[in-house]
């Protein structure tokens, strides 16, 4: 996994080292409400949501309520936050895999900010 370049702030995005910042998206009103105007947390939660969606085809808000902001404030990596949430709900833990043709989050976030594909196989192979 790529190291974190910046955890973000109220006005700056969470971003991975060597990757362009992920833009804010106000398409999901629940995510906008949960982020409460904090740009860094909003982007971090988008990454967590994308990891969960690519692994089990549901979103972060399809899981029971969780203290996502606490995980962000504790600087829990998005993949780890997603793994913990899924494991707590009975999904098996998974390991990230990566190859040079990584397109794991391209349809969700326009570019793969993680630099890896999560799940038991390359995510571009999943039928979505």
Could you name the key traits of this structure?
single chain; 128 residues; mainly alpha; two-stranded antiparallel ribbon; globular
In spatial order, strands of the major sheet run: 1-2
Strand content is 5-15%
The average pLDDT value, as a whole number, equals 76
First and last CA, distance: 23 Å
General form: globular
Number of helices: 5
Quaternary status: single chain
Major sheet size, sense and barrel closure: 2 strands, antiparallel
Uncertain regions spanning at least 5 consecutive residues: 97-128
Helical coverage, percent range: 25-40%
How many distinct beta strands? Answer: 4
* Classification by helices and strands: mainly alpha
What is the succession of H and E elements? Answer: EEHHHHEHE
Rg calc: 13 Å
Overview of this protein structure:
It is globular and about 35 Å long. Helix 1 (29-35) crosses helix 2 and helix 2 (39-56) packs across helix 4. It has a domain at 4-92. 36% of the residues lie in helices and 7% in strands. It has 128 residues and is mainly alpha-helical. The strands form two sheets. It has a two-stranded antiparallel sheet. It has a two-stranded antiparallel sheet with strand order 3-4.
Question: What's this model, at a glance?
Answer:
By secondary structure, this protein is mainly alpha-helical. It has 5 helices and 4 strands; from the N terminus they run ββααααβαβ.
Helices and strands in order:
Blueprint: E1 4-6, E2 15-16, H1 29-35, H2 39-56, H3 68-73, H4 78-88, E3 96-97, H5 106-109, E4 117-118
Helix pairs in contact: 1-2, 2-4
């Amino acid at each position: 996994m790529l190291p974190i370049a910046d955890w973000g702030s109220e006005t700056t995005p969470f971003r991975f080292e060597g990757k362009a910042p992920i833009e804010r998206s106000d398409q999901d009103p629940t995510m906008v409400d949960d982020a409460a105007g904090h740009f860094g947390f909003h982007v971090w939660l988008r990454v967590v949501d994308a990891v969960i969606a690519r692994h089990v085809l549901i979103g972060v808000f399809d899981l029971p309520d969780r203290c996502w902001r606490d995980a962000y404030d504790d600087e829990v990596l998005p993949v780890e936050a997603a793994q913990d949430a899924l494991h707590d709900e009975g999904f098996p833990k998974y390991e990230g895999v990566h190859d040079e043709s990584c397109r794991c989050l391209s349809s969700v976030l326009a570019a793969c900010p993680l630099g890896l594909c999560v799940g038991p196989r390359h995510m571009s192979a999943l039928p979505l």
